[in-house]
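Can anyone check this?
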Amino acid sequence: MKHRAFNVLGNIAIVNFPDDFPSKEKKVFAEKILKENKAIKTVLEKSGKFKGRLRKMETKWVAGDKTKEVLYRENDCVFRFNIDTTYFSPRLSGERKEVADLIKPGEEVLVMFAGVAPFSIVIAKNSKAKKVYSNELNREANKYGKLNLELNKLKEKVEMVDGDIKKVALKLKGKCLDVIVMPRPQLKDSFLEQAFMLSKKGTRIYYYDFYKEEEVDVLKNLVEEEAQKAGKKIKISQIKKAGNIGPGRYRYRVDFEVL
């Protein structure tokens, strides 16, 4: 049988089998993974792409412990989450640490689209931020986010602000933050309107979006136009690639400051 690649997320291996791959061979391959990798306890088959605004994956159990709950470690932090009901990208581990290193002592930070709170927790654990506000729409992700705050002993430093950011921003209005981190999924709405609503002079915003390399000017124009609509002047310090998500398509991070 040909060797097949698989991704590892904590204690779980995820295999993307071809459509015509026989079920018996899937089981054999999965058992081989378990035998050769003692840290892996479960093998799942990826059966669908990430779906919808909540970015849920679809997987099927193949072998090992019958669970879809992961225990994952990075950046001196630990995270528990369900692969099918919440979104988590281990590829953003370096980004999370890089952003955490940009936070200055005593700053108040808002993380939008926080998921199970990896950005929020890595920032809180690896910086001297005064307070981190963690916002997420997915109720299941918020359940795990609260659990992860406990696992990392950060309940005093991170505050969960659950729900739609458009409504949450209205509640937080008047609380002007030092830093806003936007690890946005692929959505039509940029949500920069809400970020500018919660910004002040000197607020730094780290905004993520998805474009082809030749479309970077479109991304730059989008950020500048949204700032103009909000009556804000900004200075973009950099637009950097933050991961490849497909042929010629990248996740970009735009770093800018409100003047």
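Reply from J.R.: I decoded it. The longest helix spans residues 23-36.
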